[in-house]
Amino acid sequence: MTIVKDIQARGMQHCETTALGVLLRHEGLDLSEPMLFGLASGLSFVYWDSRNMPFPFLGGRVKPFELTKNLAARLGLTLRVEETTSPGKAWRNVSAAIDAGRPVGLQLDCYHLDYFRTKVHFGGHVVAMYGYDEHDAYLVDTEQQGGAVRTGLAGLARARAERGPMTARHRSFTITAPARPSGWAEQIIPAIRACADAFLAAPIANLGHRGIAKAAGLVPQWLGRTDDPQGDLARAALLMEKGGTGGSLFRALYRDFLGECAELIDDDDLRTGHRLYGEAATLWTDVATLIAKAGESGDAAHLEQAGALLHDLSRIERDAMRALSRMQP
Predict the structure, then answer these.
(1) CATH number for region 2-30+78-176
(2) Which residues form the DUF4872 domain (predicted)?
(3) What is the pTM of this model?
């Protein structure tokens, strides 16, 4: 058995911030999950639908692994990323780092992990690996998946080799902090402004506050979009609240990030953004509840109510991000 020493195997709410927390704590930097998410400019929105998708998807964060790259750049971390089509080389990339005493982040498809009770393909899942023996890999996943967990090496290999939406080619990564790290608090305002600017200037109508407005018009039609409303609508609502988002489609995490920042920075625009994202977090939970009710009852009135709330959310988040984009160093 090979185990990296002094690992704090603490699961959090979201997979990528959980893995980043493990890797950064090993480097001596212990930040809250909302702070990790916010410094990585992680908040976003996408209404994703296509002909080959069985049902639309509402996403509340930046693309998989973009969060990790953003955080590394923001904090001046050395991010080493390995990708390969060879399963053998993929294992050597991981085992060499662990043998050297360094935990490793992995992007994979959670469908093949032994401890996942709900078997759904998702190729953007991220875990931290900190050990292995002849049968199992020792991982840290989200709190809801068990935190410190084990999975069979064969299943791990299948998870890393899977191909499909959001998958990567056996991606693994390590993080090294600089010998003299710069103060992370100095990066708060640049991170907030970068997130706000990207949200407000999204290049297509499916993204940002325009994407939320688009969802407001399309969600009321969802009963006609599915042959299995009880399954599809319930799953959509579950992903918004319980699918590693921290609740409210990541808005609760961002609200808490802004709240932490408001304790460090005296800024009226920051306080405005924090207040508005508090409102948004509550309304997103209401939207998820209405979508679930529509699936249970088949009553489109619930989706009409959800659409009305989404119109409000488009305006609230636009106003919040406009305020946050005005923050000055």
Answers:
(1) 3.90.70
(2) 155-324
(3) 0.96
